Amino acid sequence: MAKQAVEAIIRVRGLVNRFGAETVHDGLDLDVVRGEVLGVVGGSGSGKSVLLRTIVGLNRPAAGQVEVFGRDLLEMSDRQRRVLENRWGVLFQDGALFSSLTVAQNIEVPLKEYYGRIPLRLMDEISAVKVGMVGLPEDAGQKYPSQLSGGMRKRAGLARALALDPEIVFLDEPTAGLDPIAAGGFDELIRDLKGSLGLTVFMVTHDLDSLFAICDRVAVLIDKKLRVGTLEQLLKDDHPWIHAYFHGPRGRTAQQGDANAPAKSKRTPAPA
Amino acid sequence: MMASVAATLTQSEEAGRFIFAAAGQWLVATAAEIDRRLGSLQLPTGKRVTLDLAGIDRLDTAGAWLLLRTEHDLATRGNAVEMRNLRPNFAPLLDQVRAGGMVSPAPHPRPAHHTISGFLARIGEVSLGLVARAYSLLSFFGLICITIGGLLLRPYRLKLTPLVAQIEQTGVNALPIVGLLSFLIGVVLAYQGADQLRRFGAEIYTVNLLGAGILRELGVLMAAIIIAGRSGSAFTAQIGTMRVNEEIDALRTIGLDPIEVLVIPRLFGLMLTLPMLTLCANVLGLVGGCLMAWASLGITAPQFLRQLQASLYAWTFWIGLIKAPFFAFIIALTGCYEGFQVARSAESVGRLTTLSVVEAIFLVIVADAGFSIVFSMLRI
Description:
The complex is a heterodimer of chains A (272) and B (380).
Chain A: E1 8-19, E2 22-33, E3 37-41, H1 48-55, E4 63-68, E5 71-72, H2 78-85, E6 88-91, H3 103-114, H4 120-133, H5 150-161, E7 168-172, H6 180-197, E8 200-204, H7 208-214, E9 217-222, E10 225-229, H8 231-236, H9 240-247, H10 249-260
Parallel strand pairs in A: 3-8, 3-9, 6-7, 7-8
Antiparallel strand pairs in A: 1-2, 1-4, 4-5, 9-10
Helix pairs in contact in A: 3-4, 3-5, 4-5, 6-7, 7-10, 9-10
Chain B: E1 7-14, E2 17-26, H1 31-39, E3 48-59, H2 61-76, E4 80-84, H3 91-99, H4 116-153, H5 160-170, H6 175-197, H7 206-244, H8 247-254, H9 258-297, H10 301-311, H11 314-341, H12 346-378
Parallel strand pairs in B: 2-3, 3-4
Antiparallel strand pairs in B: 1-2
C-alpha cells in the first residue's frame, strides 16, 4: 500500500458503455489520485451513475480497462475481486440499507462477512462507533431504515460503507434530497472523515455547493467523455455546457458562497 | 483475510507507574485478537498509567476504539491515564472516534425467549391478529361493495381498457399452465381410479369418477389455486409496489379512487376469466382422463363419451362452474387487500405477497367446503 505519494488509485482507460443502441461512454479516461475528493458532474442521463457502477464492478463495460489499486478489475476472478471489495465502500443514492435489519445490524453485515471472529459485543461497539462517527444519535443504531429520515438514512448508509475502514468511498449523489443544512452537514462530515481516515472519495453529485465546499478536482461528463480539472480550470473552460453549469444563476451563487466563507463550510442555501 | 497481521500489547511497571505498550497493526482484522488480549489483562486501580502508543504502525477505527475503550476502562478504575507517543498522522482519527463519545451499545432486539408464557402470549397475539385481519378484510369487502354500487349507478365510469388488459393477463396468458396441469390431473386421476376399480371389475366407472371429480371439484379448484398463485400474488405485488412508490397517494391527489381504478378491473376481470379457465380445465382434464383410460383400460373415446353422458346430469357441470366467480372474487379480494396493507418498504411487499397466496388458497378451499354443504342440503 505504501507506494509513491501521487498514485492513481483508480485508473480508467478507453471505457465504452452501451445500452442497446445508445452509447453512454465512448473512450472515457479517468485517473483518481489517492487522498483526493473527486466530484463527477454531468447532465441527467449522461452516465455518471453508470460510471460509478462500472468502477465498482456492478456493470460490465463493452470495452476498456478499469484498474483499482493498480489491478485490472475486469481480468479478475470473483474471489480476487472479493478481496478488493473490502477496500472500498459504496453509498447508494437512498442509502440502500437492508430494510429487514437495524442500522447497527446493517453496519455489522460487512464486519461479520469479513471478520466473523470478532466477538458480538465488540462488533456492537464498533458499529456504535461508526454510528457516532457519521453524526447519528446513539439510539439510531437500534432503528430500522424505515424509521429514519432521508438524511439519516444516507448517514447510516455511509456508516455501512465505512464499516471496514475502506480506502475509497464511492458516493452516489450523497446530498440529493437533503435540505441545505443537512447537505452542508454531510459535506462537512465527508471532509472530516477524509481528513481523519485518509479516504479517497469518488462522488457523483448534482450539488454545486458540495463541489465548491469539498472537491479537490471535478470531472465533467460531457460528450460521452470526461473533462477533469480543478475548479479554477473548469471555471475558465469555454465549453458551452460547462460554462452554463458553473456560470448559471445557481453556479454563481455557489461560487459566492464559497468565496464568502472559504474556511468553514458555510453554505448559502441554493436559490429556490 | 489477513490472519497473520500482528498487534501486541505488553504490560510493564516501573517506579509505581504502569505502562501498557501497544504496538503493531491495530486494525479491524486484528480486533478480535486485541480484544481477547485486553480481556485477559489485569487492570490496575488507582495508579498512574501510561498508554505508550509509539509502536503502532497502522490504526483504523476499530483499533482507535479499542485504545479509547482501554483508556476509558482504566480511568473508571480510578487510574490517572496518559496517552503518549501517538504518531501525529493517527491523531485526527483518534479525535474523530473520541468525538463520537463513549458508546455503550444497547443489545440488539433479539427474539423473545422460548418460555411457556412467551408461547402462550404468542398464541394470544396471533389469535387477536387473526380477528383484526378478518375484521379489516371485511371492511375492505364493504368498501368494494360500495364502489360496485356506485358503479352500477354510473356504469359509464367503468373503464374497459384496463378490464380487457386484466382479462388478457389473468386469463389468456394463464391458459397454457391451467390447461397443462388440468390435463395431467386428469391423467393421474384416471390412472388411480382405474387401478382401484379394476379389482372390482368396475373399470368402466373410472369414467364416472373422472366426470364427477373433475367437473364438480377438481377443474375449478385447480384453476382457482393456479390463479391464486399466479394472479392473486401479482395483484398484491403490483398494488404493494405502487404503495411503496406513493403511486396510490398520487392517484388520490389527482382525484381518482384507487379502489375504482385498481381493484375493480382486477376483480371483474378475474370474475370473468376464472369461469372460462374452469371450462378449459374441465375439458382438458377429461381429455387427459380419456387418454389414460384408453391407454390403461382400453376404453375407447366413443365408449368414454357414452359412459360420461350416461353418468352425468346437467347440474354436475354447473356445480363446478357456479363456484368459479365466487372463487375469483375471493382471490381478487385477498390479493388487492394485501396489496393495500403494504407498508412503505420493499420487505413488506414480499411478505404480504406470500401471505396473500396462502390466504387466498385457504379461503378458496373453505368456500369450496361451504359449497359442498349447501349443495348436499339442496341434494344436487
